């Protein structure tokens, strides 16, 4: 309920308790045991935000928020209003956009896998540190190859490709084993078997659709999570991705008179259960910095102890419903919850926490100056819309006749890593065959060169042998000529000697 520009949450005796719109981006906590009125408080805040034109995103885990589209019963709540002295309070209904990641009870919500990124996917798939390292390499390879990873089959195709080329990528990016790739493939198959494959694809969610108004009233974007909640890690990771999308896509706006949008995260403890140190740091940073984008976040859980202190310290508007304190652990949790409030000297906070009725809560919020108020035992207003679950036909009509129907209902599958793999495999096969042909040609040329060299060597040897033979024959011929000349000279000398002897004898005989 809006009064004097502020959200009237309830009354502490005669004192009116307000939430200040410009302090809503300082975040909040709605805590309490099951059945103590957390859903009513959520509805009262979300309805009031809608009335001042602030859209909301609300995770509906139990499926009991669909009554927002139906006006409540004035008669059913009049007694409570009279007991609180509240007038000018009239029931009404609110504009709602229903979403469902399964696409059954609302517009489908899809995300491109590369937008979610390795860290969040690793948490969904429960990967080890080594497997997360391999997943990071898969995404890096896809980025270097300018390939989009949009859906499951894209990531499966890229994982197979990196596995086949693990040796070369180990040298370039670091160790990537076939065992890690195999484990990732098995986890992806499990996701596919569980039906998670439909979360990833196109068209992906456009955050601008969450910021819509209808006739000046903020749209309530209710995310049906009853089925998704059966997979707690998937639920928590998917909702955190949505919150992170708001942070990444919305511009810096500083302090505003009221938030641009408020995000209600039910069963918030699941976000932190089993989260890695790296993810916890990322969540803490997102919660810390998203306020400058004009985004308020309310965590809904059982006790403040469910939220890490680094995040809890940033939740300035606190609403604590009753807690049960039977076991030592529950008693300790109650005391810690009491210590998180600015003390009110009028009562013992720890004692009040365990004795409040349904619809009552301890409330401490930021005042106009941003200081926390002392805790007040507050009777929460009733919601203006129906607390009953809307008929399926009413929800279906709401979905079919809102202004975004048809935008997300039809999927499309653009060319991405999976489709590109056929061309890449063909190109690589062609390159492999070309390389083999190149090697074959080089080998053949080498063989021919060896044969030619061998033949040349053989011919050279034969030529040398022939030259040697000719030289030998020439030498023999020269020797023969020399002997012949010598014999002739010798014969000539003998003939000369005989003639001279005859001449001498003739002269002697005379």
3D architecture notes:
The protein is of the alpha/beta class. It folds into 3 domains: 2-110 and 206-400, Rossmann fold, CATH 3.40.50; 115-195; 439-510. The chain is 49% helix and 12% strand. The chain has 15 helices and 14 strands. It has helices spanning 38-51, 74-84, 113-125, 129-144, 152-164, 166-173, 178-193, 232-249, 269-272, 277-289, 309-312, 328-339, 349-353, 392-400, 417-509, and strands spanning 2-3, 6-12, 15-19, 28-31, 56-60, 96-100, 213-214, 217-218, 220-224, 261-265, 295-301, 317-320, 360-364, 376-380. The strands form 2 sheets. Strands 1, 2, 3, 4, 5, 6, 9, 10, 11, 12, 13 and 14 form a 12-stranded mixed sheet that branches. A two-stranded antiparallel ribbon has the order 7-8. A hairpin with a 2-residue loop joins strand 7 (213-214) and strand 8. The termini are far apart. The mean pLDDT is 91.
Brief overview, please?
With 510 residues, this protein is an alpha/beta fold.
CATH topology of the largest domain: Rossmann fold
How many structural domains does the protein architecture include?
3
How far apart are the termini? 182 Å
What is the total tally of β strands?
14
Assign the CATH architecture of the largest domain: 3-Layer(aba) Sandwich
Lay out the secondary structure.
Elements: E1 2-3, E2 6-12, E3 15-19, E4 28-31, H1 38-51, E5 56-60, H2 74-84, E6 96-100, H3 113-125, H4 129-144, H5 152-164, H6 166-173, H7 178-193, E7 213-214, E8 217-218, E9 220-224, H8 232-249, E10 261-265, H9 269-272, H10 277-289, E11 295-301, H11 309-312, E12 317-320, H12 328-339, H13 349-353, E13 360-364, E14 376-380, H14 392-400, H15 417-509
């Amino acid at each position: 309920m809006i009064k004097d520009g502020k959200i009237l949450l309830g009354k502490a005796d005669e004192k009116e308790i307000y939430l200040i719109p410009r302090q809503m981006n300082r975040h909040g906590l709605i805590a309490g045991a099951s059945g103590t009125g957390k859903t009513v408080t959520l509805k009262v805040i979300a309805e009031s935000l809608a009335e001042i034109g602030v859209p909301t995103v609300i995770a509906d885990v139990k499926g009991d928020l669909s009554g927002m589209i139906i006006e409540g019963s004035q008669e059913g709540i009049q007694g409570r209003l009279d007991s609180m002295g509240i007038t000018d309070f009239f029931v009404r209904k609110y504009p709602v956009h229903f979403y469902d990641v399964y696409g059954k009870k609302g517009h489908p919500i899809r995300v491109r896998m590369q937008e979610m990124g390795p860290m969040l996917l690793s948490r969904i798939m429960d990967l080890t540190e080594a497997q997360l390292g391999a997943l990071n390499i898969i995404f890096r390879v896809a980025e270097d190859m300018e390939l989009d990873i949009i859906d499951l089959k894209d990531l499966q195709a890229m994982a197979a490709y990196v596995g086949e080329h693990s040796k070369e990528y180990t040298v370039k990016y670091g160790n990537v084993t076939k065992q890690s790739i195999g484990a990732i493939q098995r986890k992806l198959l499990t996701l596919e078997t569980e039906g998670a494959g439909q979360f990833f694809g196109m068209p992906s969610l456009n955050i601008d659709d969450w910021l819509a108004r209808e006739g000046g009233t903020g749209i309530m974007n209710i995310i049906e999570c009853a089925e998704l909640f059966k997979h707690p890690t998937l639920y928590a990771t998917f909702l955190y991705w949505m919150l992170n999308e708001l942070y990444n896509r919305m511009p810096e706006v500083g302090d505003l008179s009221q938030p641009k949008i408020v995000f209600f995260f039910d069963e918030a403890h699941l976000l932190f259960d089993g989260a890695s140190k790296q993810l916890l740091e990322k969540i803490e940073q997102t919660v810390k910095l998203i306020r400058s984008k004009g985004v308020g976040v309310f965590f809904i859980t059982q006790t403040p102890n469910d939220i890490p202190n680094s995040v809890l310290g940033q939740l300035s508007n606190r609403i604590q419903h009753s807690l049960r304190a039977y076991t030592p652990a529950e008693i300790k949790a109650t005391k810690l919850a009491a210590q998180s409030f600015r003390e009110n000297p009028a009562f013992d906070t720890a004692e009040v926490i365990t004795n409040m009725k349904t619809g009552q809560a301890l409330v401490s919020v930021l005042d106009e100056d941003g200081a926390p108020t002392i805790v007040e035992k507050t009777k929460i207003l009733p919601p203006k819309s129906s607390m009953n679950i809307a008929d399926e036909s009413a929800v279906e009509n709401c979905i079919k006749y809102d202004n975004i129907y048809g935008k997300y209902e039809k999927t499309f599958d653009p060319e991405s890593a999976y489709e590109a793999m056929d061309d890449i495999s063909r190109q690589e096969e062609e390159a492999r065959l070309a390389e083999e042909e190149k090697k074959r040609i080089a080998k053949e040329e080498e063989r021919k060169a060896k044969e030619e060299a061998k033949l040349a060597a053989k011919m050279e040897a034969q030529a040398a042998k022939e030259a040697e033979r000719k030289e030998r024959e020439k030498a023999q011929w020269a020797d023969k000529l020399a002997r012949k000349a010598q014999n002739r000279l010798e014969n000539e000398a003998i003939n000369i000697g005989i003639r001279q002897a005859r001449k001498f004898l003739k002269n002697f005989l005379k």
